[in-house]
Amino acid sequence: MKVLITGASEGIGKAIALELAKKGHELLLLARNTEKLNLVKDMCAKEGALSASVFSVDLRDSQQISDFCQQLKELDGVINNAGIWQKKSPLDEIPESELLNVIATNLTGLISLTQKVLPLLRKSQNGFVVNISSRSGYAAQAGQSVYSATKYGVRGFTEVLREDLLDSGIRVAGIYQGGTNTQMFNKAGENFAEEKLATFIPTEELAKVVSFLIERPKGVWLPEIKVENK
């Protein structure tokens, strides 16, 4: 299958790319950092990907999304993984620039990209949309008002999109994982200790869940998966 993965330069997206490479899929790797994307591309080639292409796209920029999607000729599935963390803070202490950045990256960009690739997914025999959300899309957690708003939004978008596409053959799923061991938190200034991150879900294990999901036979699908590290 030809699969588009957003946020593929590191963290969960990178792990998903490497896991799907082992299964011999064609991969379209999307993120902002071209240098990191190329490193992932080389790793995917070594793991056995049928092909891997990189695209530097900022999901906060609707024109960049449009320009990218116009290049695509065919696509089987999209894994919307790109996202950023909002440092835990009361709402009135969150800078407006951070508020807008989190919403544009986690929600608006995801919806816009999905909208623009739907015509290609309709042509596929294996069309799917997998949205990597968060436990914060289900459970209210103090200090995460903006982040949770985006993740609840992703959940709502996912559920309505699934209903809208019931007769299209396109399968839609949401992944709702607990804390995952990535640099997302530290990049937002949260500065979690390595000892705490070590208790979070390993990205490689979450990637196996995603791989299992998209490789279900045509008559079997898991529309919603909650993942915790036990």
Topology:
Blueprint: E1 2-6, H1 11-22, E2 26-31, H2 34-47, E3 51-56, H3 62-71, E4 77-80, H4 96-123, E5 128-132, H5 145-164, E6 171-177, H6 184-187, H7 194-197, H8 203-214, E7 224-227
Parallel strand pairs: 1-2, 1-4, 2-3, 4-5, 5-6, 6-7
Helix pairs in contact: 1-2, 1-8, 3-4, 4-5
Written description of the protein model:
It is built from 8 helices and 7 strands, in the order βαβαβαβαβαβαααβ. A 7-stranded parallel sheet has the order 3-2-1-4-5-6-7, sandwiched between helices. The protein has one domain: 3-Layer(aba) Sandwich (Rossmann fold). α4 (96-123) runs parallel beside α5. It is globular. It is of the alpha/beta class. The relative contact order is 0.15.
Compose a concise summary of this entry.
The chain is of the alpha/beta class and 230 residues long.
Return Rg in Å.
Answer: 17 Å
Number of strands: 7
- Sheet bearing the most strands, described? 7 strands, parallel
Strand content: 15-25%
Number of DSSP helical runs: 8
Instruction: State the distance separating the first and last CA atoms.
Output: 32 Å
- Unreliable stretches covering 5 or more consecutive residues: none
Shape: globular
CATH class: Alpha Beta
- In sequence order, what are the helices and strands, one letter per element? EHEHEHEHEHEHHHE
Helix content: 40-55%
Provide mean pLDDT, rounded: 92
* CATH level-four homologous superfamily name: NAD(P)-binding Rossmann-like Domain
CATH topology: Rossmann fold
Number of domains: 1
The appropriate CATH architecture is: 3-Layer(aba) Sandwich
State the strand order across the main sheet.
Answer: 3-2-1-4-5-6-7
